[in-house]
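TICKET: design request
STATUS: open
ATTACHED STRUCTURE:
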């Protein structure tokens, strides 16, 4: 039904500044700079081996501009949405309807690249509150045009998303939606005695949705928190970012065996950001 984490949406006030910061952080340039004229937004997209990362800013009136402005007003710049991909959105909608889930119709979207004039088109399916649970999330099927890939991924650059972190106070409800309804594989469910919560790991398209779960008796809600990016040579990445003026912690061994990690502390537009290198075992 759902076969990938298609992309992440990041709301920013100044897209030129955000693009400059993330070009330096990632070590690659964006592959698309464009607009959604009917939504009132402009975007800058970085494409990776397993997903893409979309900077989004208001540029007029429309649903998209309202989303960006509301997100920044309530939470500041940062992660705004997670978009899940389907190869056949009509079939996915039918499967969800068979489960008794009620929502609106499939809508069409279009984006135009400023530099090349290329057009991309897609279908969207916006989800009801009982599935999004406080997150801005929708389903997408790309129908026309492709995002280019970077010409190369240097050893010091980011080349894929390792995991996205979501906080929830309702782990059983999260499992019901993401595993039972969406059909995403729950690879690991473990209790963390140290802080009295659970960690859930959902796997799809060579990335992980990592869920930090701690029940608190409040209204059930999920919230995007942070990102971890995969690099081939973390020491080279660390050296490059220090030269670019980033505040970054020293490289150290990660909690997961055979990993090195470092945390980027500046110019991430309020997104907790971890860099990780997976060592040969």
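STATUS: resolved
RESOLUTION: sequence designed for all positions
ATTACHED SEQUENCE:
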């Amino acid at each position: 039904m759902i076969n990938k984490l298609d992309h992440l949406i990041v709301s920013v006030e100044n897209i030129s500044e955000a693009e400059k910061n993330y070009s330096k952080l990632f070590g690659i340039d964006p592959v698309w700079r464009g607009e959604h004229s009917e939504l009132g937004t402009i975007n800058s997209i970085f494409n990776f081996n397993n997903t893409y990362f979309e900077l989004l800013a208001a540029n007029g009136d429309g649903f998209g501009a309202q989303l960006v402005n509301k997100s920044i007003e309530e939470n500041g710049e940062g992660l705004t949405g997670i978009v899940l991909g389907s190869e056949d959105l009509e079939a996915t909608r039918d499967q969800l309807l068979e489960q008794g889930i009620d929502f609106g119709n499939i809508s069409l979207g279009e984006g135009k690249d400023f530099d090349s004039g290329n057009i991309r088109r897609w279908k969207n399916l916006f989800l009801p509150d009982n599935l999004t649970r406080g997150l801005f999330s929708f389903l997408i099927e790309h129908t026309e045009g492709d995002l280019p890939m970077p010409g190369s991924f240097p050893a010091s650059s980011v080349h894929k998303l390792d995991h996205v972190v979501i906080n929830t106070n309702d782990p059983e409800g999260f499992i019901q939606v993401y595993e039972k309804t969406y059909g995403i594989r729950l690879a690991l469910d473990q209790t963390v005695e140290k802080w009295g919560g659970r960690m859930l790991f959902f796997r799809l398209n060579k990335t992980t949705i990592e869920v930090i779960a701690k029940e608190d008796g409040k209204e059930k809600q999920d919230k995007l928190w942070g990102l971890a990016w995969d690099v081939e040579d973390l020491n080279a990445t660390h050296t490059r970012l220090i030269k670019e003026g980033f505040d970054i912690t020293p490289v150290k061994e990660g909690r997961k065996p055979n990993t090195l990690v470092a945390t980027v502390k500046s110019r991430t537009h309020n997104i907790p950001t971890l860099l990780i290198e997976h060592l040969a075992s």
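CLOSING REMARK: The longest strand covers residues 158-168. The chain has six helices and 16 strands.
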